[in-house]
C-alpha cells in the first residue's frame, strides 16, 4: 500500500478542492439554515464525475479507486458536510450495491444514470423500530405473480426528499428474520411510494432526510436486487463501503474546523499577542493535527482494503469509529479556540461542531462499530 497519493489522485483532489471552494462553500451556511436540498449542486457534481467515483466508465462512472473516492468526500465535507453526505450516499449506498449485486439490465437502467448524476439515489433500510438492529425491520414484500407488493415505513432516509431511485429492504417472511430480507431497486415515482415529514436536524440539515412510506407498492421481480433473502447481506456489505465514506466525511469536517482554528490562532490577539503564541493553544493544534492524520490514514487503509480484499468489514468499522469520534474532539477544540465568537453563527466552527455529531450515529453508531470490530477480532 502506498501512503503517498498518486499523480492522478493529487490532480483529482485539487480539482475537487476547487469545486468545493467555488460551488459548495458559498452556499454551505445558507442551505444549513434553510434546509433546502441543493439539487443543483448534485447536478454539477455529477457533471464532474463525482456521483459514481468508483463505478466503471462503461456504466457512467469515473472508474477511479476507493482512495480517490475518499478524497472527493473529504474535500466536499471540508467546506460543507451536507454536500459530502449527499454524494457519499449516492456513491456508496446506491451505486455500489447495484454495481456489486445488480443484473446487467439493472446496471444499464439504474447504475448508469445514477453514476452519471442524472438520477439521485437513497438507501431505505432504517425503520422506526429497526435502527441499530437492522434485521428487525417490518416492511414486507409479498410475491404476487411477476411482482412483489411492498408495504412499510422508513425513517431518517438521507437524500429521501429528492431521490429518484431508492434501494429498499423488505422481508418476504417476517418469521425468518434477516434470512428473508430482500433488496429492491425502487423508482420513487412508483404508485404507492410516498414521502413523510422532512426531518429537521442538529446538523447536515439540507441532506433531504425524510420518512418514506410504501402502500401496496408493486415492484416487478426484475427490480429485485440479488436473490430473495440476500438483502441483509447486501445491506451489510454495502454499509462496509458506506462507513468508509462517512469516515472520509468525518476527516473532511475535522480538517475544515482545523483550518479555521489555525487561521484564527494566527489572527486573534489577546494579551498583546496572537493566541497561537500561547502553549495552551499550540497543544490543542498539535493534538488536532495528529489525530487528523491518524484518522485520514485509517480511512485510506480501509479504502485500500476495499479495493484489494474480499472482506474489509474490520478496517471500515475501525476507520468510522475512530474518525467520527476524532471529529467530535477536533471540532470541539476548534470552537474552544474561537472562544465566544466560535459559539456564534458569524463563524463556521459552530456548524462544523454540529455537523460532526451525526458521523458517530449514521451508518452504524460507535457502539455498533465496536460490536462489529469485536466480532471481527474475536473471529465470530
Ligand atoms: N458483509 C457480509 N455479510 C455480513 C456482514 C458484512 N459486513 N455482516 C454480517 N453479515 C452476515 C453474517 O455473516 C450473517 O450471515 P449468516 O446468516 O449466513 O450467518 C448475517 O449477515 C447476520 O449477521 P449478524 O448475526 O452479525 O447480524 P445482526 O442481526 O447481529 O446485526 C449488526 C449485525 C452489525 C448489528 C447490523 O445490524 C448493523 O450493522 N446495524 C447497524 C445498522 C446501520 O448501520 N444502519 C445504517 C442505516 S443507513 C444510513 O445511516 C445512511 C445515512 O443516513 C447516511
Class from secondary-structure proportions: alpha+beta
Percent strand equals: 15-25%
What is the CATH class name of the largest domain?
Mainly Alpha
Percent range of helical residues: 40-55%
What's the number of domains?
A: 3
Question: What's the total number of strands?
Answer: 10
Shape: globular
CATH architecture of the largest domain: Up-down Bundle
What's the story with the biggest beta sheet?
A: 4 strands, mixed
Keywords:
380 residues; alpha+beta; Butyryl-Coa Dehydrogenase, subunit A, domain 1; Butyryl-CoA Dehydrogenase, subunit A, domain 2; Butyryl-CoA Dehydrogenase, subunit A, domain 3; 3 domains; four-stranded mixed beta sheet; four-stranded antiparallel beta sheet; 54% helix; globular; binds acetoacetyl-coenzyme A
Report what the structure shows:
With 380 residues, the chain is of the alpha+beta class. The protein folds into three domains: 7-120, Butyryl-Coa Dehydrogenase, subunit A, domain 1, CATH 1.10.540.10; 122-228, Butyryl-CoA Dehydrogenase, subunit A, domain 2, CATH 2.40.110.10; 232-378, Butyryl-CoA Dehydrogenase, subunit A, domain 3 (Up-down Bundle), CATH 1.20.140. It is 54% helix and 15% strand. It has helices at residues 7-34, 39-47, 66-79, 81-101, 104-115, 231-267, 279-308, 313-342, 349-358, 366-378; strands at residues 121-124, 140-144, 147-157, 165-171, 181-187, 193-198, 210-220, 224-225, 269-270, 273-274. The strands form three sheets. The chain has a four-stranded mixed sheet. A four-stranded antiparallel sheet has the order 2-3-7-6, with no helix packed on it. A hairpin with a 2-residue loop joins strand 9 (269-270) and strand 10. The mean pLDDT is 97. Bound molecules: acetoacetyl-coenzyme A (CAA). The site of acetoacetyl-coenzyme A (CAA) has 26 residues, from helix 4, helix 6 and helix 10.
Amino acid at each position: 500500500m502506498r501512503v503517498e497519493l498518486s499523480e492522478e489522485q493529487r490532480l483529482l483532489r485539487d480539482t475537487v478542492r476547487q469545486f468545493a471552494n467555488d460551488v459548495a462553500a458559498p452556499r454551505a451556511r445558507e442551505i444549513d439554515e434553510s434546509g433546502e436540498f441543493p439539487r443543483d449542486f448534485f447536478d454539477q457534481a455529477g457533471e464532474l464525475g463525482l456521483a459514481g467515483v468508483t463505478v466503471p466508465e462503461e456504466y457512467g462512472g469515473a472508474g477511479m479507486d476507493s482512495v480517490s473516492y475518499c478524497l472527493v468526500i473529504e474535500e466536499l465535507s471540508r467546506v460543507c458536510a451536507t454536500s459530502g453526505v449527499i454524494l457519499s450516499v449516492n456513491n456508496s449506498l446506491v451505486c455500489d450495491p447495484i454495481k456489486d449485486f445488480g443484473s446487467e439490465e439493472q446496471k444499464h437502467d439504474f447504475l448508469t444514470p445514477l453514476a452519471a448524476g442524472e438520477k439521485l439515489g437513497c438507501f431505505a433500510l432504517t425503520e422506526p423500530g429497526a435502527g441499530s438492529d437492522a434485521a428487525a425491520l417490518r416492511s414486507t414484500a409479498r410475491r404476487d405473480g411477476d411482482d412483489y407488493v411492498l408495504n412499510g415505513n422508513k425513517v431518517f432516509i438521507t437524500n429521501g426528499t429528492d431521490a429518484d431511485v431508492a434501494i429498499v429492504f423488505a422481508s418476504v417472511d417476517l418469521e425468518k428474520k434477516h434470512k428473508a430480507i430482500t433488496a429492491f431497486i425502487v423508482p420513487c415515482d412508483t404508485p404507492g411510494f410516498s414521502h413523510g415529514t422532512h426531518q429537521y436536524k442538529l446538523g447536515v440539515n439540507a441532506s433531504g432526510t425524510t420518512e418514506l412510506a410504501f402502500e401496496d407498492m408493486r415492484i416487478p421481480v426484475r427490480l429485485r436486487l440479488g436473490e430473495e433473502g440476500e438483502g441483509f447481506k447486501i445491506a451489510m456489505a454495502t454499509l462496509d463501503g458506506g462507513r468508509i465514506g462517512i469516515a472520509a466525511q468525518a476527516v473532511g469536517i475535522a480538517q475544515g474546523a482545523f483550518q479555521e482554528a489555525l487561521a484564527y490562532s494566527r489572527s486573534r490577539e489577546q494579551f498583546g499577542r496572537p493566541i497561537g503564541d500561547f502553549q495552551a493553544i499550540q497543544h490543542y493544534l498539535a493534538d488536532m493535527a495528529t489525530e487528523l492524520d491518524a484518522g485520514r490514514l485509517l480511512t485510506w487503509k480501509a479504502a485500500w482494503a476495499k479495493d484489494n480484499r474480499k472482506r474489509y468489514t474490520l478496517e471500515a468499522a475501525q476507520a468510522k469509529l475512530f474518525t467520527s469520534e476524532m471529529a467530535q474532539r477536533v471540532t470541539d477544540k476548534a470552537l474552544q479556540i474561537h472562544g465566544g465568537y466560535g459559539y456564534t453563527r458569524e463563524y463556521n466552527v459552530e456548524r462544523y461542531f454540529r455537523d460532526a455529531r451525526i458521523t458517530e450515529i449514521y451508518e452504524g453508531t460507535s457502539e455498533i462499530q465496536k460490536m462489529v470490530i469485536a466480532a471481527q477480532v474475536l473471529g465470530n
